[in-house]
Structures are given as structure tokens and as C-alpha cells.
Amino acid sequence: MPKFKLQLKRERQTLLKLKQSFEDPFHRLSSWKGNNCCIWKGVSCDETNGHVVKLNLRAPSRFSNESFYGIIREISFLVAPVVKSSLLEFRYLEHLDLSGNDFQYSPIPQFFSSMKQLRYLNISKARFNESVPNNLGNLTGLRALDLSSNDQGPL
Questions:
Q1: What is the pLDDT of residues 103-138, one digit of tens each?
Q2: Bridge pairing between strands 52-56 and 43-45
Q3: d(CA 107, CA 109)
Q4: Which residues lie closer than 8 Å to 26 by C-beta, 6 or more apart?
Q5: 27: left (phi > 0), else alpha (psi -120 to 50), else beta?
Q6: What gap in Å lies between CA 75 and CA 56, rounded to an integer?
Q7: Which position among 10, 12, 118, 123 has the lowest Cβ density within 10 Å, counted as fewest Cβ atoms?
Q8: Model confidence over 81-107: pLDDT tens digits?
Q9: Phi first, then psi: what are they for 146, rounded to 5°?
Q10: Cβ neighbours of 57 (radius 10 Å)
């Protein structure tokens, strides 16, 4: 099996482990099936080497540009008591957005600081407890970091 396909298989298995760690009452991860994880909703892969480089699991906002005069759209967020460290298996992940989901006031994971390749991290409005680990400062490659409103939960 070519290295590209082995890599896709390994990262697909990791994504499926991550999927199992969430309660998904709104079936947001229902596209996460089949062999090609690069076409799953919220997953983007590098076209050259097949590595997962972006995970956009952002929960849709109550209000959006699609709403008409502020009519509230259906809220659909993922729920998990913690963020699983299986994210560390994505060694090429540059973009991680978990905003708007419900992490039930668990601590912001210490292991985020080991994800040196991250350029974008958004965990806003995700119901993490309010203490921010000092070691997030180790993510020297970050271009964007959003930790806002973690006391409010999914909005």
C-alpha cells in the first residue's frame, strides 16, 4: 500500500476515535464514514501528502449571515467531557477550531502546547474552565488564538 494511503488510513482511524469521544446529538459528524477522510465535513488534508492539516469542528452560531433579521437558527454543538489527546496523532495539523462546542467546564488541555505545528487555535465559547495553561505560550507558531467567552458555553 502506498505511503499516502497508509497515512490516510491512520489518520482516518484517529478521526474515528475522536468522533467516538463526542456526543453528537445533531449528527454533525454523520459524514465521517467511508475510506476518504479528506472529504469528511470539517476535515481538510494536504493535497500533496494526504496529512490532515485542518479540523474545523466549530459549532454553528445561533445567529449567522444566513439568518433573516436575527432569527435564531438551530444550534448544533458537540459534547465531550474532555478533549482527547488523540489529537496529538495529527502531527501536521495547523488549524484546529473547536469553538462553540460543550466541553463541560473541563480544563483547557495541557497537551495543546505540544502541537507546535498549530497556526490557528480557536476554543472560544466551548465551555472550558477559565484557567488558561501557561504552556500555551509554547505555541510560538500561532498566528491566531481565540480563548474568549469560555464561561458561557455554546451560544
A1: 999 999 999 999 999 999 999 999 998 788 999 989
A2: antiparallel
A3: 6
A4: 74, 76, 77
A5: left
A6: 16
A7: 10
A8: 999 999 999 999 999 999 999 999 999
A9: -125, 115
A10: 22
